[in-house]
Amino acid sequence: MSEEAEHLNLTNELVRNAQTGDRQAFERLIKLHFQRIHRWALIGTGDPDDADDVTQRVLILVHRKLRSFRGDAGFESWLYRITSNAVGELFRKRKSRRRAMDRYEASGVRAEITEATERGLAERIADDQAAGLITTFFEGLPTKQREVFDLVELQGLKAGEVAELLGVEASTVRVHLLRARRTIRSKVLEQHPEFAEDYR
Amino acid sequence: MMRCEIARDRILEADPAELSNEVTGDLAEHLETCSACQALAERVLESERTLAGAITAMEPGLDVDAALARVPSGQGWGSVWGWRRAGLALPLAAAAVAALVLLKPPGNPGQAVAFDPSSPVVARALGWDRPSPVVRSMSHASVAILPTENPDITIVWFMN
Known about the structure:
Number of helices of chain B: 7
Oligomer: heterodimer
Number of helices of chain A: 11
Number of strands of chain B: 3
Order of helices and strands of chain B: HHHHHHHEEE
Radius of gyration of chain B: 34 Å
Strand content of chain B: 5-15%
Shape of chain A: globular
Largest sheet of chain B: 3 strands, antiparallel
Strand order of the largest sheet of chain B: 1-2-3
Largest interface: A-B, 56 and 42 residues
CATH topology of the largest domain in chain A: Rna Polymerase Sigma Factor, Chain: A
CATH architecture of the largest domain in chain A: Orthogonal Bundle
Number of strands of chain A: 0
Helix content of chain A: over 70%
Number of domains of chain B: 2
Distance between the termini of chain B: 83 Å
Order of helices and strands of chain A: HHHHHHHHHHH
Radius of gyration of chain A: 19 Å
Shape of chain B: elongated
Helix content of chain B: 40-55%
Structural class of chain B: mainly alpha
């Protein structure tokens, strides 16, 4: 059995047990998906503190709503929708996107992006720099485009898989992906005017 | 032979496999022969690798065990609503009892007046800061909105 199939089987078993009130199963289920929830929250909010808030909120919502999950769609799709809704709820309540932008622009992180890209040593980038990179690359990108770009381009999922996860058509995923690529890569070009020189 | 301007535009939307010459095609052919466009393609790929690394490096500031500790114990919907019902039942019962006891006319022991949350007497008896405003709905019913200490619970009281 593939690792992916094992993961799916384990998830389904834990969901069933957690739905009967098994707290341990619920906690194992959350631990299995915690990083994923946080990543979705981070991509959705673009801000590490907001991502933590959303993650906490999602845990409470999953606990509250798990009994209503009937398995018509996959658990991950259901989890994704809860996370996505929690991100929307956060934005509606706190308008935090602007706050996140201000925070990183004020810290001067934006100017460090070129240098960080030159190094290409992402694993050594401090949290603030990483957060600044994420914010700057994703700035101005609609949430759906950010999500699709992360899932397809950075995590390597297929358009069909992402379509199922997001509950949209595969063609819609491809449109979002192309738009996201164009926006993000245009920013790379802006950071490197020497490439524009070559085309004069 | 593809022109550089066209190649540059294609690079903005191309699949990473095309940019890294893993697949064949007219863009790949151009990149093989044009060092400037190839450098741009490499820069794009490097930026995306950096972005991917930055996202991966962003560990949750939240410890999973600490986060789970904040999730209420009990069993999903049933217990959540049970908890909410329990939380709601107490103030409602207290309000009803207080209203019946306090508003019972002294000269007529068998008859109580209707509970009126807009009355200062009721507000004082229930420990509210001020009487609840009562609005008239389109169906001519009076509606009182009563906040509680729990931000998730608001009592909507319909009166004929």
